[in-house]
Amino acid sequence: MSKPFVIGITGTIGSGKSAVGHILEDIGVPVIDSDKVVHELFATNVVLKDRLVAEFGPTVLSDGSSGIDRKALGRIVFSDPKAREQLEDIVHPLTIEACLREVAKYSNEEIVAILVPLLFEAAPHLGYDTIWAVTTNEETLIKRLITRDHMSVDQAKERLAAQFSQEKKAQGANNIIDNSSTLEYTRDQVVSLIDQLKNPRHA
């Protein structure tokens, strides 16, 4: 195959996209994590670093000025919609290009998945053949952000408000992964969907 079947996987922050990604890797499906792609760009892309410093100031540099401090940058942009839009205009085109390069590395694979938190908002052009939305209940989302990312309730709600709602993401998806229950339940859904893709006549 010259191009694998591409699954775009989205969901709000804290919904469980990474858990779905780990399940896919466990069953042999390569996974490209766009967040890791962005991390790599922030750490190594000198042109990007210079543009971000010019736009948002030297406080966004990490210690030693070797890359961008994502948390410092986040503090600036998530409370300022205009600044967030400026950041997206700079970062998203580079991220899309880098993700497409990653997909090209898997030309011999049958299926590849891309984890894209802002799939509908910022990266609708990655050539997805199908889109999955990972969802969970709102209370769990808030608890995960408070515990995992050390946010206050208000900060968690602000971060969620900066993205499309779970409902909107689900409406735009071909399939929904309900991550509100056990990991085994989530795994069963993922395995079933992959089986349907590989054996469409059994779907």
What can you tell me about this protein's structure?
With 203 residues, this protein is α/β, with parallel strands linked by helices. It folds into 2 domains: 1-30 and 110-198, P-loop containing nucleotide triphosphate hydrolases (Rossmann fold, 3-Layer(aba) Sandwich), CATH 3.40.50.300; 36-105, 3-Layer(aba) Sandwich (Rossmann fold), CATH 3.40.50.300. Helix content is 54%, strand content 12%. Strands 2-3-1-4-5 form a 5-stranded parallel beta sheet, sandwiched between helices. The two termini are 22 Å apart.
Task: Write a short abstract of this structure.
This protein is α/β, with parallel strands linked by helices and 203 residues long.
Number of discrete helical segments: 10
CATH class descriptor of the largest domain: Alpha Beta
Specify the CATH architecture of the largest domain: 3-Layer(aba) Sandwich
Please list the strands of the largest sheet in the order they lie side by side.
2-3-1-4-5
The rounded distance between the terminal residues' Cα atoms is 22 Å
CATH topology title of the largest domain:
Rossmann fold
Beta content comes to 5-15%
Give the CATH H-level superfamily of the largest domain. Answer: P-loop containing nucleotide triphosphate hydrolases
Low-confidence stretches: none
The helix/strand class is alpha/beta
- Radius of gyration using CA atoms only: 18 Å
Number of strands: 5
Give a short account of the largest sheet: 5 strands, parallel
Helix content: 40-55%
The total domain count is 2
